Amino acid sequence: MAPSVSGTEEVRVSALTPLKLVGLVCVFLALCLDAGAVLSPAWVTADDQYYLSMWTSCWKPVSSAEWSCNSTLATGWQIATLALLLGGAALTLLSFLVALISLCSGSRSRCYEPVAVMLFSAVVLQVCSLVLFPIKFIETVSLRVYHEFNWGYGLAWGSTIFSFGGAILYCLNPKNYEDYY
């Protein structure tokens, strides 16, 4: 004989949802892009005569074949840009580790809010650095040739966007979306 079924059904909602897994992937991609941006030799380039990274600034006179390079850690705005970018990367790394450890240990739902807060904080730091960089660059460096913000700067924006996406995904409450799983 079949067991009797009561009028209420037990609904189990796992704290781990595809949204959280996609959020974890977004945070991992943000970390990879952060590493690429910080190590990139090309934040600003100018017609094979100038390039600027987070660490060095190099230029080559038109009549010369030799590059002259200086450290970028001599000016305050470049140090501030690097510090804000590295601070955001550190928060992104910490949030990735917390999310990964909580995923492996089974204490998932308790850690979603701190991960989201850390990611939003990382986004704020990185946006500040990415807005500060072109403003101060244009204000202080006078190039007489065409220059452009290159792929290193773009990687930093990509990292910021993925961090923001991960933060939003970690804010979503899986109980509101149980019909999708």
User: In angstroms, what is the radius of gyration?
Assistant: 23 Å
Helix content: 55-70%
Number of strands: 5
Distance between the termini: 31 Å
Q: What percentage of amino acids are in beta strands?
A: 5-15%
- Mean pLDDT comes to 83
Model regions low in confidence, pLDDT < 50 over at least 5 residues: none
The gross shape turns out to be elongated
Strand order of the largest sheet: 4-3-2-1-5
- Characterize the main sheet: 5 strands, antiparallel
Structural class: alpha+beta
Per DSSP, the total helix count is 4
- List the helices and strands in order: HEEEEHHEH
Which key terms come to mind for this protein?
alpha+beta, 4 helices, 59% helix, 9% strand
Question: Topology of this structure?
Answer:
Layout (H helix, E strand, L loop, with lengths): L17 H22 L4 E3 L3 E3 L3 E4 L8 E4 L4 H30 L2 H33 L7 E2 L1 H21 L10
Antiparallel strand pairs: 1-2, 1-5, 2-3, 3-4
Helix pairs in contact: 1-2, 1-4, 2-3, 3-4
